[in-house]
Amino acid sequence: MENTDTELNKAQTATATSENDKTTAILAYVTLIGLIVAFVMNNEKKQEFASYHIRQSLGLCVTGLALGVIGMIPILGWVINFLGIFVLLYMWVMAFMNALNGKEAPTPILGKKYEVWFAGIQQ
Fold it and tell me: For residues 115 and 45, what is the distance between their CA atoms, to the nearest angstrom?
C-alpha cells in the first residue's frame, strides 16, 4: 500500500514539474517581457524543456531584430523585411505550437542554427 502511494506521489510530482516546465516554455514565446520572465523563472531550476524553448524564443527575437535593421535599407530592405516578417510569424507559430504540445523540436528554417548559436544559455 505504501509503495503504491509513493509511486502515485512521484507521478503527480512529475506531472506538476512537466506542467510548470511547459508553462515556462509557453511564456517564453509571449513578447520580449515574457521571454525575460521565463528566463528568470527557469534560472534556479534549469529545466531542460523550458531552457530549450527559451533558446528558440531568443533566436526568434534576434532574427526579428535583424529584420528590423534590414528594414532600414530603402526599397530592397523594405521588401526583405516585409517577406521576412511573414516567415518569422510562421516560425513563431510553429515554435509556440511545439511548446503547447510539449515537443522539444526546433523551429522551422533556423531552429537548428538557434540550437548551435545559443547552446551555452541556461545549461
Answer: 20
